[in-house]
Amino acid sequence: LSPPAATCRDERLNCAAIKAAHSCDDVFRATMMQQCARTCCYCT
């Protein structure tokens, strides 16, 4: 499940670069939901 918006944050410093490389979805989705939730727009 996606983290609630109030507690949703990025755990990694390079989330913007990850999003720019289109790596928020597909095979990386589960990892990015945990590590780059805010930048990858997984907050609810």
From TrEMBL:
Domain of life (superkingdom): Eukaryota
Chain ranges passing through the membrane: none
Domain ShKT: 8-43
Cited InterPro entries: ShKT_dom
Pfam families membership: ShK
Name this polypeptide is given: ShKT domain-containing protein
